[in-house]
Amino acid sequence: MTTRNLILSILLILPLLSFSKEKKDKYTIVKVGQAVPEFVFIKDDTLKVNSTELKGKVVLVNFFAFWCPPCRKELPKLETDIWNKHKNNKNFELLVVGRGHTASKIKKFYAEKGYKLPYTADKDKKIFKSFAYDIIPRSYVVDKNGIVVHQALGYNEEDFQKMVQLVDSLLTE
Q: In this predicted model, what pLDDT tens digit does every residue of 100-137 receive, in sequence order?
């Protein structure tokens, strides 16, 4: 490839890259550095909790849907790499939010897959809409002060492992 062709290729790709970033920003409400929004959720279909009660804990909020292939790749990793490691840590909270799903459907899905992850049903997408407009899976790591310190869109192993390391790091501070 000549230098001229390389430069032309880069010039053609750059607008596409910026469009992709704009698209993500367009669908994101809560960004890194902002406070986590206040919302109420029912943990495991039994315990009603206000997100303000989580201050002082490291929180990982993950939005998923059954029909989403990347979500299906991420959920088992959430269980093995994060939940199983930190589930007994009183300074950690994991919210796995079933976007558009009822508690009974999540229970059935979990039973089929053998998941032990905590879950929150978000049938009307009210919780999700306080964070974003679109794109899942979507994860937010919130520090002990209630500030979003990391956001992940979609799923890939490298980014997921960075999130695991961040959670580990925040819990050892």
A: 999 999 999 999 999 999 999 999 999 999 999 999 99
Cβ 137 vs Cβ 154: under 8 Å? yes
- Residue 94 · residue 129 · CB < 8 Å: no
pTM: 0.84
Please state the φ and ψ torsions of residue 165, each to the nearest 5 degrees: -65, -40
165 burial via Cβ count (<10 Å: 0-12, 13-18, 19+):
exposed
pLDDT tens-digit series, residues 82-91: 999 999 999 9
**DSSP run (H or E) holding 9:** helix 3-27
Q: Are strands 138-142 and 58-64 parallel, antiparallel or unpaired?
A: antiparallel
Please name which of 38, 62, 60 lies closest in space to residue 51, comparing C-alpha atoms.
Answer: 38
> Reduced to 3 states, what is the DSSP secondary structure of residue 100?
coil
Amino acid at 111: A
Q: What's the farthest any 2 CA atoms get from each other in the chain?
A: 64
- Could you tell me how far CA 145 lies from the centroid of its own chain? 18
140 HSE (CA, 13 A, CB side): 26
**pLDDT over threshold 90, residue 24:** no
